[in-house]
Amino acid sequence: MAKAAAKAEKPAKTTKAKASTKTSAKTVKADKKPSAWTKPFRAIGGYFKGAWVELRQVRWPNRRATWSLTLAVILFSLFFAALILGLDALFSYIFKEILL
């Protein structure tokens, strides 16, 4: 029973040691301040890194869903184009009748 407890304690100690080295490495990097001329490049790099992370989180549609959504956009566009053309023709007719 004591041996099992001793074995359980050893991995915990090694993981704590590994965790402390990781945190100390991070604090060293955090202490360094970037120079003034590298700040814009770091900002641009951070932007692209964040954009890449966001793109990896996107749930992309499959081919069938893509085609159905494309068809929906085309149908809505045609409907509203016909609606606008119809209203334009109607108002043109009404204004011609009023003004002439």
What does this structure look like?
This protein has 100 residues and is mainly α. It has a domain at 76-100. Helix content is 86%, strand content 0%. The protein contains 3 helices and no strands. It is elongated and about 80 Å long. The mean pLDDT is 81.
Give the biggest beta sheet: none
Mean of all residue-level pLDDT scores: 81
Helical/strand content category:
mainly alpha
Question: In terms of per-residue confidence, which ranges show pLDDT below 50 for 5 or more consecutive residues?
Answer: none
Q: Beta-sheet strand percentage?
A: under 5%
Percent helix among the residues? over 70%
Shape: elongated
* SSE succession: HHH
Cα-atom radius of gyration: 32 Å
- C-alpha termini separation: 106 Å
Q: Write down how many β-strands occur, each being a DSSP E stretch of 2 or more residues.
A: 0
Number of helices: 3
Briefly summarize what is shown.
With 100 residues, this protein is an all-alpha fold.
List the helices and strands and how they pair.
Blueprint: H1 2-31, H2 39-57, H3 63-99
What characteristics describe this protein?
mainly alpha, 3 helices, single chain, 0% strand, 100 residues
